[in-house]
TrEMBL record:
EC nos: 3.4.11.5
PANTHER family: PROLINE IMINOPEPTIDASE
Domain of life: Eukaryota
Lineage summary: Eukaryota, Sar, Alveolata, Dinophyceae, Suessiales
Keywords: Aminopeptidase, Cytoplasm, Hydrolase, Protease
Listed name of the protein: Proline iminopeptidase
Length: 378
């Protein structure tokens, strides 16, 4: 329960759902998600062999998100270093179990759709926009993983929360959840992590490499590299070129880079990318905002994290109840990320979702497993 919370839970209006993905493009892509999701394949067939603590989900009845709700409290929190103002919101049951949702990107921002992952009668739902994302503003150079970790702890103290009873994060949000929980293990009681991203050099470079995701879309990757004059360049150089151009003060240069980036990254979201949707989004680069520049700055700097050290520090949270949910066909964050994390958290439940990519918006089976995992902490 959050300090000063009222006693009566609010009412919850119904409405359609278009959940954003947790890695990039959340805000402008959300409106296209319902259209794209109709093209997905559904998991079929018998379950494969099982290892202890590892489950492959099957074609069972799929869970759907909870009804739309409004935030009952919003605010802006000036960071300890004084360089950013962070937007945060609280929704759901004021006397419920306090859950913190961590969005992806970095730079994607939280969304009202994220509230719908949680039963509002059970959970007190806290979300915030990380530095520079969504409605948060500040100086872009003062934005690192360490500062985000400190921001979460500052938010906890500001809200008067003794500990987060559940920490939920997808993609980059899963990375940040690990960074925070290993730093403050006594302040986290349980976790649900999905579309896992462990920021090793290999994981960072895979989506942008001709020898990684480029193997699946070689013609599109060629255009992606050529757009920033990086044909044949190593992944690190390609990342650097995009980081520079996405942050350019020249609107023409910046928007050209945004469009090229969107054309590439959006086709990695699901099993059957819709070219008409991709082109529609790419034609409106201004809608992407500054999130892409934040993301690429992080990627070009190794996400300001030592991935091996992060995994080593997981011994500090090995006792926590944890579910790890990952799409078997994720081209942004390959399943090996989830497998590596499971090796460091042997008590965690690892769920591989067949015929699912990175985006839970575009993979109903993946979203269903996330909802089930969260519901296990009622």
């Amino acid at each position: 329960m959050i300090r000063g919370a009222g006693s009566a839970p609010p009412s919850y209006p119904h409405g359609p759902m278009a959940q954003t993905r947790g890695f990039q493009l959340g805000r402008q892509f959300a409106r296209w998600a319902p259209l794209a999701s109709t093209a997905l394949l559904w998991p079929t067939g018998p379950r494969g062999p099982r290892s202890r603590g590892i489950r492959r989900c099957s074609a069972e009845e799929l869970r759907t998100p909870f009804p739309e709700i409004e935030a009952r409290k919003t605010g802006n929190l000036v960071t300890v270093d004084g360089t950013h103002s962070l937007y945060y919101e609280v929704s759901g049951n004021p006397k419920g179990k306090v859950v913190l949702f961590l969005h992806g990107g970095p730079g994607d921002g939280s969304s009202p759709k994220h509230r719908r992952l949680f039963d509002p009668e059970v959970f007190c739902i806290v979300a915030f926009d990380q530095r520079g994302a969504g409605q948060s503003v500040g100086k872009k150079e003062f934005n690192t993983t360490e500062k985000l970790v400190q921001d979460i702890e500052q938010l906890r103290l500001h809200l008067g929360v003794e500990s987060w009873e559940l920490l939920v994060g997808g993609s980059w949000g899963s990375t940040l959840a690990l960074a925070y929980s290993t730093r403050f293990p006594a302040r986290v009681k349980a976790m649900v992590l999905y579309s896992i991203f462990i920021p090793s050099q290999a994981s960072i470079e895979f989506p942008y490499s001709a020898a990684g995701a480029g193997l699946f879309f070689p013609e599109a990757h060629k255009a992606f590299a050529a757009a920033v004059d990086a044909t044949g360049a190593q992944p690190g150089e390609l990342l650097g070129r995009y980081a520079e151009r996405l942050a350019s003060e020249d609107t023409k240069v910046r928007n050209a880079a945004r469009s090229a980036y969107l054309r590439w990254i959006m086709r990695l979201l699901s099993l059957e990318p819709d070219e008409s949707i991709i082109e529609e989004v790419a034609r409106n680069p201004e809608d992407a905002g500054d999130g892409l520049a934040i993301e690429m700055r992080y990627m070009a700097n190794g996400c300001f994290v030592d991935a091996d050290q992060l995994l080593e520090e997981c011994k500090r949270i090995a006792h926590l109840p944890c579910a790890i949910v990952h799409g078997r066909n994720d081209l942004l964050c390959p399943p090996a990320n989830a497998w590596r994390l499971r090796q460091r958290l042997p008590r965690a439940k690892l769920i591989f979702v067949p015929q699912a990519g990175h985006s839970s918006s575009l993979a109903p089976a993946l979203r269903s497993e996330i909802l089930k995992a969260i519901d296990g902490h009622r």
